[in-house]
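Tokenise the fold.
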Amino acid sequence: MADPRPVRIFISSPDDVRPERGIAARVVHRLAREFAHHFTVEAVLWEREPLLASAHFQDGLIAPHDTDIVVVVLWSRLGLPLPADKYTGPLSGRRVTGTEWEFEDALAGYRQRQRPELLVYRKHAEVVARIGDRAAVEEQQRQAELVEDFMRRWFSDADGVSATAAWRAFADGAAFEGMLEQHLRELLRRRLAGSAGKEGAIVRWHQGSPYRGLEAFEPEHEQIFFGRTRARNEVRELLARQVANGTAFVLVMGASGSGKSSLVKAAVVPELREAGMVGHAAMVRHALTRPGAFDAAGGPLSGLAAALFEGAALPELAAASSDNTPDALAALLARTPTATAQPIRHALAAVARTAGVTSRGEARLLLVVDQLEELFTTDGISPEDRTRYVAALAALASSGLVWVVATMRSDFFDRLERLPPLARLAGGEAKYLLTPPDDSEIGQIIRQPAREAGLHFEIDSSTGHSLDETIREAAAGDAASLPLLEYLLDQLWHRRTASGQLTYAAYQELGGLHGAIGRRAEEVLAGLAPEVQAALPRLLRALVSVQPGTRTAATARY
């Protein structure tokens, strides 16, 4: 049984670190699953500048001093002062902003009764101000000075040099997420001695294998997608810069099997659906499409248009007018792509009204174009089709309403110069290169999904070596190992013991990391009838497109 008294973690921050606020909430949610057997962990988010009407400020919410842990995140501003007749600093007695009041309230509580524990983080990153807006620049400078004054008053000695209290610095969202998770996990572990719970595995993932084998991760697999924290945050931050620059387009590139599709669908999509992760977006719908997924009669734009009408995207497009159909939208995208902004704007306005988005918030559509290289490899896509498709993406990304994130194999990079509109769209900072995971990230890919599914790895009694570490060592340093790794882990899950143990015996039976797929394929092929075996070469030629040239590139096709 878990301890009935929840551990409350209060998240305090000004408006400029709203993405980090969302990251903190996600970390707390993840740790809540991890420690669910011992106690309940809850995030307390006291929203003062809401994007959604459902998240408005309430005087009745729990105060920081009544929680267990308070996390304060600062960057370039302290925010607006609170009404002096209701709120003054509990320790300073001066007029304060919301973040200052929450910090002082927490610190006063700790000084009185050693609770709550207080964690302070400060972001060190370049602040971009609107040079043409003198008032905005002056306000930004004033806010920066307020932050410096706050740090001197509470964290430095009278000489302004010696530190009197601890705080942590971070450069980006990935660093903050890793640091915060480490610190909060340690604080929660200290509570285990007093918890009524007991050690034991908990199954939090109930949808079959926590590993995807040779299938890509989808948005619904967010809970079991691990090892790409830095890449996820870097893509989001890059998209935020692209949005600010007026062309919301990011091209994620990487080697075949590097996990581009999984990163975007299982990490970036859920990340961007959270309110406030980019700008003032409070509600984000998403559409998934591939250039090669289309009706032969309609061309690639028909597949793109159909994706915009899907349930997770904008089915409101159809409700706005009987003339709004996928075919009509595809024709509009081909003829006048910039004109599609009007029906999309109306549909997003309906989304915002239904969701209760306030005047500060915005509704946006995230369009994921997976495997963009299909523009060059799919039969039936002409040069004119490619040009129209890219023009449609450019118009959507420049509309101020749609964010476009595409994936493409890096061995197709030289094709960009053959399609100048795509080269321009993906120019400058728009490209993100997904590199192979490092040793630590590979460890997370192996161990974290097992933890979600209540699994454990066998330890060799003679060597003391754990199977998860054996697998990590086999996968380390091999840039092409991710598909093999996921397949091996999935097969180990299928061979798990009744107690949920993944064993060395199964690992050896499968042939290890590099032998699992080949051995299984031979077993399946050997069990088929001779005429079916004979059809395999013809089938493979139908499923794979091989592009001629100095560097032969093989890609899947419908």
